[in-house]
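#structure-requests
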Amino acid sequence: MISVPPEIVLQIIENVDDRYTMLNCLLLSRDFKNDATRLLYRSVDLFSTTGELKKFRHAIDANPQNAHHVVHIAFAQVLSWAGGCDDANYILSKLPNLRSLKMALSDWRWEGLLEYLSPSVHCPWQLKTLIWGAETTHGPSALIVAHQGTLEHIELHYDACRAIAGSGTPLRGLALPNLRSIRLPLHIHPVNLGLRARDWDGPTFKGGEDDDDTCEWNRTRSTTVTV
């Protein structure tokens, strides 16, 4: 078999834009398999069915190195299937390079993951992007506090905004030094989350998932939550 230079393999793999073709690349050669695996695991979408979550859990148990490739992961709620948080927490605990999280499991809580990790194990993430879905019944305040130094973009559903606004002052005093943008439901202002109005420029209408209209606010200066 003719050996293809690694830089050529990488260029080919990075120009593949559909999952079916990428899966076929796994069968071409070891070089193609290694790069295709890395890109397949870079962004992962999982539904809350026990089978799908357990299948991915077993996959990273069998090949722990693949968990290091995951940069973005999204958990989507199947309305007829509640639960899945234990498997989700196990998966999340194995992703040291996770930078983007979309959470839409109805019962998932940041505190639950911390309990799962145990006091001797620290969360390995440095989240830059947090997307909090409509299905998640618990607010994201604790997760935002835990990643206040690294977050660059946050998207919050209306219920999440209401949870933050109605829980007193959980975000007051956070500097959020790297936060650059926030996407919020229509008619929700950063001030409702405790942010200073003068620090945010907008809104820019973006539309949203599931026909929910959203607006994006961009940071104009050093952002500090109102004390």
